[in-house]
């Protein structure tokens, strides 16, 4: 087992990463009070809920559960309210813990509920998708969607502890595993060429679900996100590096309609576009671009997107909230493994890139 | 005009208190970005909305409005969502301000919406009831009700500025003014016997709506709340002093059903009960008790409550969330104008007090 501390002063918390972790032993020191509400969904509950309920009860906790419908489309205020219903029906007071057991959807909803119930109770994350382990475990963002925008309503809420157990990834659909790998590859491309070398050596094992190798990838990814987030808590500067591939990806997701492509898939193709533009700007070499495409392909992720009319693609890119105020800013690569946030790119080359990387 | 600063480090903010305040001049320096959503209700909108919209537009702001139904029963998640709808339909981004124009219901809802929209935008309070001016302007509590409990869901959200204009109290129903005076009297009884002297000298003017005298009462009240809240941000100790009269009052409100008596009316009778128990414990004199009753009566507030079976009264008292963990704690007076939080009172005397102060 590896432990990574997210350094947030008096809200410092550990991420435990490993396989078949001892939930009782690891969680017990971080659970205040005796009431725990485990929030999960109908897919994850039959797989892992009993295990965590037993671990918490072995620590003497009073455990209640709240099982939500599975899907991004239920990440709304109505389903958030079901968590409040459960907390109040169980008679929970301020000294309780909300534990998220599931992917990013459950983590975001349970996290926001814990931030708002009685104006803030304790929160614990048990992310069960690769994407949620490498992304939502760090940064404290929680929230829900609104019909007019994703993640529009929420709170910053840090967990007491995160438990990332690789053995739970064995039941994850391969497509979801690959979507998580897109974000892992992102950390390499934006800031760590040695990690890219390592990924090239271990991609087969990752895709096959090798738990030891996955644990290393999760550790490295969380460490990168923690470093970037810590250097820029207010999301003004470096934090935008985490959007490598996301502005292009956002356009793809929006055009196709959310749910058609997974977020990680759109980000994967978006990273190819960012790399291609970096290449056309003369910043990275053709072989760097090929390396980028190859690692993404080997993660079973798409490197081209369906045909999208250029004007529509551009309109969706401009809608990305990172570029709302003023000019379009993109995260591009000055070198392989060294991303920058920049306005200084050739818009004509960008248009060529969009057209070139479609079916 | 008087200015009181609530000292919260880098979230320090001013409360401007006076009559016919210059809204444009006072608000302009505290409004970030150019988008402002004014949240108000159907009662307050016809009275004051135009004035504030004009003041904000004179500062070059883009102003949208969200007019909610009037009433505590609409302080729920559904009506909260109407504020999010309005913000998103207006296309507001993170750099916007939500301005609450109304009483405590509007302040609590708009405050929570501002804390959650895009994970937190700017908030400005224009409290238009005496109760909201002397109570919710300080402390940063915001939130909504749930069918299973009041104020169960919310956030701590500090405003950028509070503008308390006494001239707006002229349209307030007299019963609402008196309800606000209950909280004003509370500050005197819990910690400032000189303020009690002052109230005794000025109660006629307060009840008559004299704006100069009201401004002083608001200033003193906010200063007391700010002092107590600052000394106890986490609500573990001294902050509970603010509950003088509230545990008894809570029982009255719960038994009668919320909406029957105003909160301030229940608190008024609750303070009489607290004073009576303090007297029976031998801590304050009979004339202190009489002074307490008299000032409450002069504010046109009730000093006895309808007949409530003792067992039910006690059960509701025990439900008060301040006493959930373990033994009943009460705020009583060791001396007139000096409250303490204590478990050391005679339960039999408490029962006598409840029965004695009913019709
Ligand atoms: N808070 C943040 O910082 C942050 C960061 C990235 C993404 N997100 C959010 O996360 C969400 C996406 O997260 P996600 O990709 O985890 O999606 P998800 O939560 O929808 O999970 C994907 C699917 O896998 C299932 N699943 C989860 N764990 C499983 C397991 N161990 N075995 C089998 N099936 C399992 C889920 O039920 C779901 O059907 C989005 O809503 C996004 O906005 C938040
Ligand atoms: N956040 C806090 O710290 C805090 C503190 C105390 C109370 N509260 C909350 O505040 C609420 C009670 O506040 P309230 O007493 O102001 O009630 P309220 O907001 O319901 O206002 C009382 C009535 O007066 C009307 N009104 C408001 N201003 C007016 C004006 N200038 N002229 C004419 N009518 C006017 C309102 O429309 C309403 O009908 C409760 O929900 C309570 O939980 C919050
Ligand atoms: Zn992403
Ligand atoms: Zn009160």
Automatic annotation (TrEMBL), chains A, B:
Cellular compartment(s)? Cytoplasm
> Is the keyword Disulfide bond in the record?
no
Domain 3-dehydroquinate synthase C-terminal: start-end pairs: 180-323
Catalytic reaction annotation:
7-phospho-2-dehydro-3-deoxy-D-arabino-heptonate = 3-dehydroquinate + phosphate
| 3-dehydroquinate synthase N-terminal domain boundaries | 66-178
SUPFAM superfamilies in the record: Dehydroquinate synthase-like
List the CDD domains.
Answer: DHQS
What Pfam families does the entry give? DHQ_synthase (PF01761), DHQS_C (PF24621)
Give the family this protein belongs to, as stated in its UniProt record. Belongs to the sugar phosphate cyclases superfamily. Dehydroquinate synthase family.
Instruction: Give the protein's biological function.
Output: Catalyzes the conversion of 3-deoxy-D-arabino-heptulosonate 7-phosphate (DAHP) to dehydroquinate (DHQ).
Any idea what this protein is called? 3-dehydroquinate synthase
Q: Which organism is it from?
A: Acinetobacter chinensis
What gene name does this entry carry?
aroB
């Amino acid at each position: 087992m590896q432990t990574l501390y997210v350094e947030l002063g008096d809200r410092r918390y550990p991420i435990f990463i490993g396989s078949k972790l001892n939930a009782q032993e690891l969680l017990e020191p971080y659970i205040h009070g005796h009431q725990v509400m485990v929030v999960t969904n109908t897919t994850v509950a039959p797989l892992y809920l009993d295990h965590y309920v037993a671990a918490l009860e072995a620590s003497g906790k009073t455990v209640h559960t709240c099982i939500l419908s599975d899907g991004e489309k239920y990440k709304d205020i109505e389903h958030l309210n079901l968590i409040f219903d459960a907390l109040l029906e169980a008679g929970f007071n301020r000294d309780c813990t909300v534990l998220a057991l599931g992917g990013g959807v459950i983590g975001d909803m349970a996290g926001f509920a814990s931030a708002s119930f009685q104006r803030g109770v304790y929160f614990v994350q048990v992310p069960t998708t690769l994407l949620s382990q490498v992304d939502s475990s760090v940064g404290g963002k929680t929230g829900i969607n609104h019909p007019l925008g994703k993640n529009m309503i929420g709170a910053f809420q840090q967990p007491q502890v995160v438990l990332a157990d690789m053995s739970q990834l064995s039941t994850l659909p391969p497509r979801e595993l690959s979507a998580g790998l897109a974000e892992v590859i992102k950390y390499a491309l934006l800031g760590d060429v040695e990690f890219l070398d390592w990924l090239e050596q271990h991609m087969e094992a990752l895709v096959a679900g090798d738990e030891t190798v996955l644990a290393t990838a999760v550790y490295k990814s969380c460490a990168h996100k923690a470093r970037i987030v810590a250097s820029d808590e207010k999301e003004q500067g470096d934090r935008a590096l985490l959007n490598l591939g996301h502005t292009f990806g956002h356009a793809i997701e929006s055009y196709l309609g959310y749910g058609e492509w997974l977020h990680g898939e759109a980000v994967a193709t978006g990273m190819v576009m960012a790399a291609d533009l970096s290449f056309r700007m003369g910043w990275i070499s053709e072989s760097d671009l090929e390396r980028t495409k190859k690692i993404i392909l080997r993660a079973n992720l798409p490197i081209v997107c369906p045909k999208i009319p250029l004007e529509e693609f551009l309109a969706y890119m401009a809608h990305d909230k990172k570029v709302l105020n003023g000019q379009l800013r993109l995260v591009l690569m000055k070198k392989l493994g060294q991303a920058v946030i920049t306005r200084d790119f050739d818009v004509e080359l960008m248009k060529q890139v969009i057209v070139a990387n479609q079916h």
